Amino acid sequence: MSSKQGGKAKPLKQPKAASKEYDEVDMANIQKKKEEEKALKELKAKAQQKGSFGGSGLKKSGKK
Fold it and tell me: C-alpha dihedral over 49, 53, 57, 60, to 10 degrees?
C-alpha cells in the first residue's frame, strides 16, 4: 500500500476565468456601486475624526 507520492497532493489548477463582457447597464451599476463605497469610506473617516457623540462618556444611572 505504499505509494511513491509523499506529502500533500497538489490541487488541480483551475482554468483562468474568461474576462466578462459588460454592457452599458452593468458598467453603470458597477460605477454606481464604486461611488457608494467611496462615499461610505468618506463618512466613516469623518465619523472617526469627530469621536463619540455627546461627549459625556458612559451614562450613569441615578441609583447609589
Answer: -170
